Amino acid sequence: MGSYARFTGTLRILEVGDVFGGGVLSQDGSYFMQAKGKHTGGGGSPDPAICLYLALPIYGIGVNGNEQVSFDIYREQIVNREGQREYTYLTNIAKNVPTNVELKVGFRADPNNPSRKIHYADAVIGGQVFNWNIPEPERGIQSGIRYGAYRVKGGRAQIRWANTTYEMEEVEAEPIETEGPDLTVGIYSLENVATGKYLTDAGVEATPVTMSDSDETQNTHWTFVNSGIFFNIDSETLGILRAPGSGGPGGPYVVLSTARPSPESTSDKLWIIHYNKLDNTFRFESGSGRFLYHDTNGNVTHTLASETDNRSKWKANLKNESLTISNQKNNLLL
């Protein structure tokens, strides 16, 4: 957390596109900058515009009735990572008046829970601050900025930029050290604390994993493989686990079997291991900040769950050799 992209510039708007006289947000006006950002879990565009800053024309009165004299500024923002959008009015700026603009898009720690992240797009337009937290921050993996003049569905647009600057900062989060069993040594079955059932590989690519009553068969056996500072959870019979998003092929956040070998660095196949020494259990956090979970409907998902929710807690039962104790370093995705 702490990575960001930042853009500054001086904006002058002379005219913007117009189809229906400035009254239809989805058609009228022109964009002058946008926040970009990729996410995990599928759904929506592979390179989506998280929010776009739209200038909508305001016309004069009387003899100036056909002239654009100022511009209402809206933020066209996503409601979810699948791309549904809404509009928020921000401010009005006068025609051909230099206006200082800043946009910063990035990740910061949630002040209410430092282990969580906030994905933000904070703008300053003419000295007014318009901060916005992007939905589903746990799925965000990348930030960027685009600026210029685009979307002209009618008429023409003249948007001038001067004194532009752009900077990008990549910040590595400090590792979190926890003392616990080193799961990279040995083969394990994973028993859910709430249900007593065992995580079971589907045996087929892109198919939801299941749960079994016993851990005798090989498809209930798993290894943990380092992938950088994270881990892959690797089946002894097929491949590593994948944690899709709300548009996953097995249903929202349903965990899938894959045929992919470890190690694999794709974010939806990375996990953080959390160990609770008080009850000798584990929680497995996906790259989107959710936890491996045996749902009441029988599905295995990755879900936002408290550390006291036993459906998100697992016993790692050794199937072949003794555990060793080490300092296990975990980290959080930017």
TrEMBL record:
Residues 188-314 form the Endo-acting ulvan lyase beta-trefoil domain. Pfam families: Beta-tre_PLH30, PL28. It comes from the Bacteria. InterPro entries: Beta-tre_PLH30, PL28, Ricin_B-like_lectins. Residues 2-169 form the PL28 ulvan lyase domain. SUPFAM superfamilies: Ricin B-like lectins. This is Uncharacterized protein. It comes from Jejuia pallidilutea.
